Each structure stands twice: as C-alpha cells, then as structure tokens.
Amino acid sequence: MNALGEIEIHFEGKVGAQGLTPALVDIEEIREILGEAADLLFPTEKRSQRPVISYEISEGSVRHRFRTLMQSVIGFGAVIAQIGHEGNIEFLHEKTAAAIESLQRVAWEKDYVITLLANQQSLRIDRTTRYERREQVWVEAEFYLYGELTNAGGKNNPNIHLDTKEHGTLRIAVDKDTLKQGQKNLLYRKFGVRAVGRQNLKTFEMDPNSLRFVELLEHDSDYSQSYLDALLQRAAPAWADVADPDAWLEELRGGGHG
Fold first, then answer.
1. Whole-structure pTM value
2. Residue 98 shares a structural domain with residue 45
C-alpha cells in the first residue's frame, strides 16, 4: 500500500466579534478550499489522472486537512519552502499560483492568517504578505470556451460552472441580472461562453480565477466558415493599427511559436 501524508490549510481570524470556527465556515468557502487544494497539489493532472485526496475539517480556528500520496505531500512541502525562500510565486505553475493568490486575497479581505503546512514545511499568508504575480506579464484577453453548463448561481459571488474538455471545470463570474434574464433549463446543456480574463504574455496561459462572463453562445460542434468569418470581422478593429499582424504575434511569442 502506498504511504500517505497530510497537508493542512490552517485559517485563524474572526467573523465579526466571534473567533473563527468550522461552524462559521460556509459550504461555498469549503468548496473553494477543496478546489484550491487540488490545484496546489496536482496542478497538471485531471481528476481521472491524479490520486485520491481525502478531506477533514477540524477545530483549532479552522483546519482544512487533506490526505494523499506521501510523495505528493513531500513535493508540495518543497514548493512552499521555495515560496518562502524566494518571497514570490512567479515560478509556480499557473493553477498553483492562482490558488496561492486566491488565499492571499482572502487574507487581505478578511484579515485572516492562513498557514500552509506540509512535510514539516510551512508558509504564512496574511495582510502583510504579497504573494501575487507581477501584473506586467498579464493582459486582459477574451476567451471562447466550450463545454457543459453544470451549475449556475451563488448568493454572494454568482457564477456559472462550465465543464470543458481542455481546462476542466471553470468557474466564471456573472452578475445576478444576467442569470435572472437567462433562459430556463440551461443546466447540463452544451454552450459556448465568451468571457474576459487575464492571459500571460510569456506562456499564453489563461488565469482561470479571473474569468468574467460576457455572452452565452449556442454551441455547434460542426465547423462553420460563416461563424469564423464573423469572429474575424469582430476582431479586425483591434488589429487596425498593426502593420504586420504575423510579425507582431511572433514578437510577442518571443519567436518560440511558429
């Protein structure tokens, strides 16, 4: 039997005048922590490819505990040790960096102290830390995403969940009015979603935590030249001042992409 180990995401702080306890943690917050733990431990693996991760929440402020293969726990311990040593998260995989940034935002907004623990290594995140990627390598971009709509709603942060083949399940922020005005029975149907979010200029990776809904599109898996032409026409004004689009793209890509 493979040896197992444990990582912990430990939250300390207050909710109003009360000390933080598991009883004060909403199910949506737990859902976010579960997703972040998977991205921290296995950023490149799909659910069918990664080992099982078991979960437990316990007292001591709030302790989120995850058990999985010891080899993965050792690797994550090395990662948080390097973050603490370098003082930044620029070297991390996109999903891991996004999960750390999400925890950093929680620490800022709620004045929590969040500690990651794995294999006798620890990393503290609080209002004084600045675990963010440098903004200059990120630009606002538009994405066309296709998949099955599996969830829609949310009390405080409304969003839709789109299960995609390329990126797994994406959570895309949407305003409540859009959901109210939408058609009924959207769930478990395939759609295209036009969204905006951040894209890395160096790696061309999409930041999945930055996605915001723009438009819902009927999804047709068949090739459509007219649809492609319409997209090209819509994009044309943005390229109007670029003398040689091919050369410009090659320069952005650093000559590494043909």
1. 0.58
2. yes
